[in-house]
Specification:
The protein is built from 16 helices and 15 strands. The chain is of the alpha/beta class and about 425 residues long. The protein has 2 domains: about 220 residues, Adenosylhomocysteinase-like (Rossmann fold, 3-Layer(aba) Sandwich), CATH 3.40.50.1480; about 160 residues, NAD(P)-binding Rossmann-like Domain (Rossmann fold, 3-Layer(aba) Sandwich), CATH 3.40.50. The protein has an 8-stranded mixed sheet. The radius of gyration is 22 Å and the shape is globular. The model has no long low-confidence stretch (mean pLDDT about 95).
Length: about 425
C-alpha cells in the first residue's frame, strides 16, 4: 500500500510524467523492447532514488519489463509529491515517499520498499544495500544483485568489498562513461547552478565561485560557472583517494588538470578567505569545516551538490551562530557572533534536487543515466547468479549502446570504421 503526501496531486503528476516521456527517447526505446521481452517477469524490484518525473519514467520502464516495483526517495528533501501521487495509479508500482521527510520517516520508507523481499535493487547512495547487509540480513537470500547510481554509494560499496562484507554483486552504473558525461558532468553543472540561482535570485557573473572537488561533477560545475562569468576557483585534496585504484587520478592530478584548464587552484584554507559562493562535490565529509567557515566573508553562501549532507560542517556552523533565520524554504541565514552572515542552501543537502527550487538534472541527461540503470538491471537479472560478489563495471557494449542511442535521438549517425581501418589499428606491420 503506497504512502504519499497528497493524492489530489495526481493530475499534476501525470502531466509531469507525460512531459518526461516526450523528452526521454532512449528510455522509451528500451521500454518498448522490455514490453515484448519481459526481462523482469516475476521479479520484485526496489528502488531508492530522487523521486521526480525522470525517475518516474525509469520506474514505468521497469514495470513494463514485468517487474513489480516499490520505490522510496534516497534523500528526505528530493521527492516531487506530484509525481509520487501519480505513480500510485499504475498497477504494480508502490510508492513510499514525500518531500521533507524527517529522518525517522525516511528510514521507515526505505524499510517499506524492502518489505517486498526484493530480487533486484537500484540504489542512490547505498542506503538500501546497507540496510540489507547490516540490519535486515534475512533479505540477502532473495537478492540477485543491485545497481548503484552515485560516487558516494560506490565509495561505500568498494569499502564493503575490500572488507569482504559484500553479499551480492553490484553493477557500478555510476562508473559507466555515459553516466559520467550525462549525469555527473553536464547534469550537475547545469542543475546545481540553476537551483542556486532560483533560491537566491543572485547573479553568478562577477562572483568568486569555489568548487570543492574536481571529479566529473566538479568539472561540470567549474565549466558552467566560468561560462556564466564567475571567477572560478577549484579546491582539491592533495592525496590519492583511499578507494581509488591505480588507474584513477590522484588529487594532485586533478588539481593540475584544473590549473591547465585555466581555473585558479588553491587549498580550502585560502579559498575560504575570498569565496562568495562555495559548492561541494566530493563525496567526503567536512570538506568545508568550522575553521573554514570562520574565515569566510560576510554574505558567503554554502551549497552542496554531493550526495549526503556531510560535506559542509553544519553542526560547526550552528555552534558558531548567534542566530538562525529562514530566508526561504531552501535558504537559512546564520548570523555569527561578530555579526557576519553566512547562508546555507537546502540545509546542506543536494541543492540541485531539494524541492521546490531543485528540479534535478535536465530530461535529456537523465534519459541517458536511467537508460544505463535499466540495462544494468537487465544484465543483473540475466547474469546475477553467475557474477562474482563484487562491484562490477557496466559492460562496455551496454555503455556504448546508450551513447549511440542518445546521438541517434539527435539524428546523428556516426560512420563506423572500415575493415581496413580496423586491421591497421590492430596490426603492427605497417609503418612510416
Amino acid at each position: 500500500m503506497s504512502k504519499v503526501k497528497d493524492l489530489s496531486l495526481i493530475d499534476e503528476g501525470m502531466k509531469e510524467l507525460e512531459w518526461a516521456e516526450k523528452n526521454m527517447p532512449v528510455l522509451n526505446a528500451i521500454r518498448k523492447r522490455f514490453e515484448k521481452e519481459l526481462p523482469f517477469k516475476n521479479l520484485r524490484v526496489s528502488l531508492a532514488l530522487h523521486l521526480e518525473k525522470k525517475t518516474g519514467q525509469l520506474i514505468r520502464t521497469l514495470r513494463a519489463g514485468g517487474a513489480t516495483v516499490r520505490v522510496a526517495s534516497c534523500n528526505p528533501l528530493t521527492t516531487d509529491d506530484r509525481v509520487a501521487a501519480a505513480l500510485t495509479q499504475f498497477d504494480g508500482i508502490e510508492v513510499f515517499a514525500w518531500a521533507n521527510q524527517n529522518t525517522e520517516e525516511y528510514y521507515q520508507n526505505l524499510n517499506s520498499v524492502l518489505d517486498s523481499k526484493p530480487n533486484l535493487l537500484i540504489d542512490d547512495g547505498a542506503d538500501l544495500i546497507n540496510i540489507i547487509h547490516f540490519k535486515r540480513q534475512e533479505l540477502i537470500e532473495h537478492v540477485i544483485g543491485a545497481s548503484e547510481e552515485t560516487t558516494t554509494g560506490i565509495i561505500r560499496l568498494k569499502a564493503m568489498e575490500k572488507e569482504n562484507a559484500l553479499k551480492f554483486p553490484i553493477t557500478n552504473a555510476n562508473g559507466a562513461y555515459s553516466k559520467h558525461l550525462f549525469d555527473n558532468r553536464f547534469g550537475t553543472g547545469q542543475s546545481a547552478l540553476n537551483a542556486i540561482m532560483s533560491i537566491t535570485n543572485s547573479l553568478i557573473a562577477g562572483k568568486n565561485v569555489v568548487i570543492v572537488g574536481y571529479g566529473w561533477c566538479g568539472k561540470g560545475l567549474a565549466i558552467r560557472a566560468r561560462g556564466m562569468g564567475a571567477r572560478t576557483i577549484v579546491v582539491e585534496a592533495g592525496d590519492r583517494m583511499p578507494y581509488a585504484d591505480e588507474s584513477e587520478p590522484s588529487g594532485w592530478h586533478k588539481g593540475l588538470e584544473a590549473l591547465y584548464e585555466g581555473f585558479e587552484v588553491m587549498s580550502m584554507d585560502d579559498a575560504a578567505l575570498i569565496g562568495d559562493l562555495f559548492i561541494t562535490v566530493t563525496g567526503d565529509k567536512k570538506v568545508i569545516d568550522a575553521k573554514h567557515i570562520k574565515k569566510m566573508k560576510d554574505g558567503a553562501m554554502l551549497a552542496n551538490a554531493g550526495h549526503f549532507d556531510l560535506e559542509i560542517d553544519i553542526n560547526g556552523l550552528e555552534k558558531m551562530a548567534a542566530n538562525v533565520k529562514e530566508i526561504n524554504e531552501n535558504c537559512q541565514e546564520y548570523q555569527m557572533k561578530d555579526g557576519k552572515l553566512i547562508y546555507l542552501l537546502s540545509k546542506g543537502r543536494l541543492v540541485n534536487l531539494a524541492r521546490p527550487a531543485g528540479q534535478g538534472h535536465p530530461l535529456e541527461i537523465m534519459d541517458g543515466s536511467f537508460a544505463i540503470q535499466a540495462l544494468a538491471l537487465e544484465f543483473l537479472a540475466k547474469n546475477g547468479k553467475k557474477l562474482p560478489i563484487k562491484v562490477i563495471d557496466v559492460p562496455a557494449g551496454l555503455d556504448d549502446y546508450v551513447a549511440r542511442m542518445a546521438l541517434e535521438s539527435h539524428n546523428i549517425i556516426l560512420q563506423p570504421l572500415t575493415e581496413e581501418q580496423k586491421e591497421y589499428l590492430t596490426g603492427f606491420n605497417e609503418g612510416t
